[in-house]
Every structure is written in C-alpha cells, then in structure tokens.
Amino acid sequence: MALENNKRREVPEDIKLLLKHVVDHFTEEDKSVRETQIRQWRKLKLYWSGFSRIWYSEVAHDWRVWDNVALDENINDNAFYDKPVNIFKAYLESIIAALSITIPSVRCVPDDADDALDIITAKAGDKIARLIEKHNNVQFLWLHALYIFCTEGLICCYGYPKEDPSYGSYEDKKYSEEESETYVCPFCQMQLPDELFSQNVEDEFGVDDTDVELQNLIVNEHIVICPNCASQVDPELQKVPMIVTKLTGVTHKIKSRQCLEVYGGLYVKVPNYAMKQTDMPYLQFAYETHYANALEMYPELRGKIDKGGAYYASTGIGDPYERWGRLNPQYKGEIPINNVTVRNTWLRPAAFNVCGQEEETDKLKEMYPNGSKVVMINDLFADACNEALDDCWTLTHNPLSDYLHHDPLGLFLVSIQDIINDLISLIVQTIEQGIPQTFVDPAVVDTELYGTTEATPGGLYPTKAVGNSKRIADAFFTFKAAALSDEVLPFMNVVQQLGQLVVGAQPSIFGGELGGSKTASEYSMSRAQALQRLQTPWKMLSIWWKDIFSKVITSYIKEMAGDERLVEKDKQGNYINVFIRKAETEGKIGDIELETSEQLPTSWAQIKDTIMRLIELGNPEILQAITSPENLSLITEAIGIPSFKMPGEDDRTKQHDEIKELLSSQPLMDIDPMTGQEMEVPSIRVDAELDNHFIEAEILRSFLVSDAGRLAKEQNNPGYMNCLLHFREHKMEIMKLQMQQQQMAAGIDGEVPAEKKPKTPKDKVEKNAA
C-alpha cells in the first residue's frame, strides 16, 4: 500500500474537527447501497476462490460456506455429493488471457508541431512512459486490473510519487549569490586577481628564460598584463561591483519514482450517483494493515491506536462491514485481531460546503485550495494535506453504463455456476443410486450362511422348502434402479453454451471443442467473432490506460531531479542505454495518444499462422520482406523452437557487434592502391571471403537511416562516417560478386555480352556511317 510522501505539517485542532466532520459525512453516504454492493463483490470473490456452495446469513451478516458448515456439523451425507467444478474462474481467466496478450502503448504529442523544444519533450515523454512501465511491472498491473473488471466492475488507478533509498540518490547543490568588488580587464572582460595589482609579484624565473624581460618589466616598472589577452592594463584600475555565484553546500537526496496501483470497489468508495469522475465530490480509499505499520507512518498516534484490535471497536462509521468485505477468503470466518483500517479520503473544494457555516467552508478552501487528502486510522485523525483528487486517481468509464459503477463481468456467470453445481451433484447421486436393492424372505434363504459362503461360478446353493403353490422367485423383490434422465447431459451442454454467450468466452478463445465441420476456416471465423465481442472492454481499458499515463508522465517531469537512464533492447536484440535528459523536458506535451490500433492484440499463435500463410502465397516480394535480416528474430520467436537456428543469424549478430565498435572509433587513413593518394577507410575492414556482404550491408543500411543512426550523425559524426565507410566496402564487395556472376553466366552460355565484345574496325566504320 502507498505510504505518505507529502511533507507533513501541523494541522490546527479546529481544522481537524472540520475535516473529520466532512469525511464522516461522506463515509455515511450511500451506506445501505454500499453494503449491498460489498455483499455482491464478496460473493464473486468467493466464487473465484472456488467457494460456490454459499448462502448469506442475516444473523452473522456474512456469506457462509456450506462445505465448512457441513464439516463442522458432521453433515457428511449431504456434503458428499457436492463436487463443484469452478467454471466461473475458468471462463473469466480465458477472457483475461485474451485481453492481456499485450498492453496498450502510448505516444506523446507535442503541443506545437513547429516548436523544436515541444517535439524534443514529446520524444522524452515516450521514453518516460517506457521507464514508468518498467518500474511498475505493468504486466502484473494490467492482469490485476482485468481481474477487478471481472469481479468488481469499476477499476481505480492510484498514481503517486514515492521516495525510497533503493531507487538511488542524487546531489542537490545549493548556490548563493554574493555581491563583491573585483578587477575586470577592459579589453576581454575577464576577472583579474588582486595579486596582479600588488607589488609582491613572485619570481617566476625557472629553467626556461623566455619570459625574463616580461617579468623584469612587470616587477621593476609595475606593469599589469592581463593573463587572458596579454593586454596592458592600467595599474590604477578601479574595482567594479559584481554578483558572484558560490557553491554553499551539497545535499544527497533520495530519488523518487512514479508508482501505480489498481483497486476495485471493495477498497475504493465513490458516490453511486456519479456519472463521470468530475461528478465525485470525494473518493475514499481504505485498506487494512497491522497496527505496527500504521505507527511507523504516524508515530504521534502511539498509545492512541487500539492495539488489541477489537474488530468492531473504534473503527469508524460503517467500517466493520467494509473490513469484512475486504477480508481474505482464506480466513473462512476468522478475524485478524491486530489490524487497523487506514482510510484516505480525497475531498474536492466543493466538498467543504457540507460544513454548516460559510466562514468554516472558506477557511478550509483557503488552507486547501486544490482539495484535501485526509488520513484516518480507524476513527483517529492522522494527517491532512493539499492534494487534488484528479491528480492521483484515474477511474474507468464504461460506455455501456450510465454511471461510473457498473456490473462486473463475473456477475452473469453466477447462475450458470449454480446450475452446473446442481447438475453435477444430481449426476453423482444418480450413478451411486443406480445399484438396486434386493429384499429376500428369510424363510427361504439363510442370509447368515449365504454371507459366509464364497460365490463360485455355477455353484449350487440349497434353499429351504417352500409350499407347492409358491415359487422361490416369489421370495425376492428388487427395487427399480435409478436412471439418469436423457435430458440432463444435453441440458448441461446448453447451460455451458449460455455461460459462454453471456460473458463472451467462446471455445475458440480457450481452445475448447467447436461444433460443426471443425475446419481451419471455421475455427478462424469463430475466433474472430469471439474476439469481436471483447472489443468493447478492450477499448474502455485502453482509454483508461491512456488517461493514466497522461497524468503520471506530467508528474514524472515535475518531480524529475536529474537525468535518468533505462536499458532497452533495440530491434536487432542488442541492449542499449536510453537517456532521459532533464534539459529535454523544458517543452510542453500537448496530448497523449494510443500507439496501438483499436484491434485486439495478436497472440504468437496467430502471428505464426499469418507468417505461414504469407509463405504459402509464394509472392517473391512478400518472401523477400519475411526473410529480411531485421525479421529473423521475429520468425524465430514465431516458430517457438528455441534450438531452431535461422540462416544468417550469426552474420546478423556479428554485424551488430561491429556497429558498436565502429561507433566507438573513427575512420583511419590509408593509401589508395589505384591513385596512390590518401583516403579514409573504416577502422574495421570487411572480410571478402567470410563476410555475408548482402546481410551485413542491409543491417548497416537499416542502422544508418534509423533514429539511432541519424542521432549518431549529429552527435557522433566520426562514428557515423566509420559505419558509412564500412557499408561502402560491403557494397563494393557485392558489386564484385555480381560482376563475377555475370562473367560466369556469359561463359556458360558461350556468348559474350554485346557491351563486353571488342569493337572491330568494321564496327567503328558502321557506327560512324550511322
């Protein structure tokens, strides 16, 4: 959970009372509706954990798990047939997997396309976005957001700067400006030391006597010479006042990072009447932690927090029910005794109007002009600071709902899970009851003796005598065996299809069996239709993701203390350092846009199928593009065989290593054997026999025209020219190979190309006549 990063300052007692009154007012708001929502979310959490045999107890105000009650009360006969299969989690995990193949990427747009500073800042914003993704492990963050979407509906993201020693530190230098008088050269405006204008000039004679005359002139006739421009300065020169900047101290400060956390309705309370985020006068984020953690954050509360952890004591308005809703399902009715509730409430300035008096409202607005963040530990006031709600929180907005709150996706599967549980229990009982029971007349068969006799094939067993009018078969009666209805299994299939329909988890998404002809085209069409159903949540989550980064990138630039660096892989798979310069953030970012298309992300299986179809087309241009050196790594990953070796992979790696060496050196000078003049050659020469000139030349060309190559041309021109010369040598070798191939082809055909035939005198005469 987030710790406090704002600078703490003392809050007057009257302000504490006013803020607590406002927080309690909104905490009590929508209390009955909130309890209904918590009950529903809690139920879905239990279903996700596999507890689907539950019912709500009005006495305990809790969901009771049937399996636990049956075990405690030894009701084994009834619980024996309860064998639920968790299709609730299985279907939802299929949807989460389909929506988490990749994460939406964002791109910063400059505020003014003609302003070079804005363009540079927008590019720096793209690098900042990648750095924030790396710091927050966004793959897990995205998965957790999808889990909340399935079990709670509304997703809330909390972004905040956090300082931590593990992030590193930087030097914060302090400077002061002081006014002093000094000598200034009237010719070059350089400051002159006071020693030049005094008679005590040290003897500078040494081994070298080239400055003897100058020193004699300075010492004997007291002439002042400017050491910068060697001009003679008037010895009676007056000092002039100047402002001098001096370094007064260096402080080592801890670096901060932008942290992202996502929560659902169990942790975040927002008004149910809010249609969009700006309609909310407040947002309340609450969680439970050990009281020792609370004392670490707020040591001034030592001795005031209820250490005994009485669950219902001093926990604030409505908190017992809230705490129960957030309780880990693994507790199974138990209650942690040492936890306290930390409630963080963000109040907009408009929320202060709930105070009775106008002067009280004005006092709060004056102290917290952007709104206030109020922290309560159980029912104790802990802290308050000036902080805007919209700067920290970003909420999803479902276009298929009129309000911020909407039904979670898993709610539609509850009935399906209950029906499946009943059908499975019915089938298990029917199978067991399928063995019939037989009643026998003890006057005919001695059951005790029969029970001790070993049954043998074709054995004879004597029975007691019966009357002439009575058959031995009349002494036995067998009940009719229970049989499963022929409609049960077809009905179960229908129920499963309905479950797939209501949530959009079609079999083609998770690899289930598909009806019909089961051809490849039918599977492809079914998958396309299934993914089309998920377009709406994908668009909603993508827009939410864009809004998050529009805030955290701005916050990162605001908190940025110095240059930052991140390590990335380039398109060729090489690790490179990417620097984020603070000087690059002086411009303005106009907007944040989604870089990906609106289509759902493509899995590696789909990429592999697409590549295979393109290869099967046999189009030379498509084959040339697929087998391009830049696409070798993509093809290797799509094939999915780690030991598979693509031709030219070693040449590709070798050339990328050479590019690094070429950039770190500069061209050399050599003698041209044709002209005898000096010429520039690369520091690494090509190997005419071993190098694959076609692959290496293409890799070099791609680098030289890429962003990294153009940047090297501006900032490292010798290294860029070194790469360019190496590229030209590869091109020369390619031209030699092509000429050799043409000569060989001409020799095989037995003809010499017309342009290569020697011209005879007859040819020259005919040419002149023409």
Describe this structure in words.
The chain is α+β, with helices and mostly antiparallel strands. Among the domains are: 240 residues, no CATH class; 86 residues, no CATH class; 108 residues, no CATH class. It contains 26 helices and 23 strands. The strands form 9 sheets. It has a 5-stranded antiparallel sheet. Strands 10-4-16 form a 3-stranded antiparallel sheet. Strand 5 and strand 6 form a beta hairpin. The N terminus and C terminus are likely disordered.
Write a concise synopsis of the structure shown.
By secondary structure, this protein is of the alpha+beta class.
Rg from alpha-carbon coordinates: 41 Å
**Termini, distance in Å?**
93 Å
Q: Structural class from helices and strands?
A: alpha+beta
What is the percent of helical residues?
Answer: 40-55%
Look at the structure and give the mean pLDDT.
Answer: 79
Strand order within the widest sheet?
11-12-13-14-15
Which key phrases capture this entry?
disordered N terminus, 42% helix, 770 residues, disordered C terminus, 17% strand
Describe how the helices and strands are arranged.
Layout (H helix, E strand, L loop, with lengths): L12 H16 L2 H18 L5 E4 L4 E4 H7 L3 H4 L7 H13 L6 E5 L5 H21 L1 H14 L4 E8 L5 E16 L6 E2 L19 H10 L2 E2 L6 E2 L6 E15 L1 E8 L4 E2 L12 E9 H7 L21 H8 L12 E9 L10 H10 L4 E6 L2 E7 L2 H4 E3 L18 H20 L4 E3 L6 H5 L24 E3 L9 H16 L3 H4 L9 H14 L1 H25 L4 E6 L5 E6 L8 E6 L9 H14 L2 H7 L5 H8 L9 H15 L4 E4 L6 E4 L11 H13 L1 H9 L1 H33 L11 H9 L1
Antiparallel strand pairs: 1-2, 3-21, 4-10, 4-16, 5-6, 5-9, 7-8, 11-12, 12-13, 13-14, 14-15, 17-18, 19-20, 22-23
Helix pairs in contact: 2-10, 5-7, 6-18, 13-15, 19-21, 22-23, 23-25, 24-25
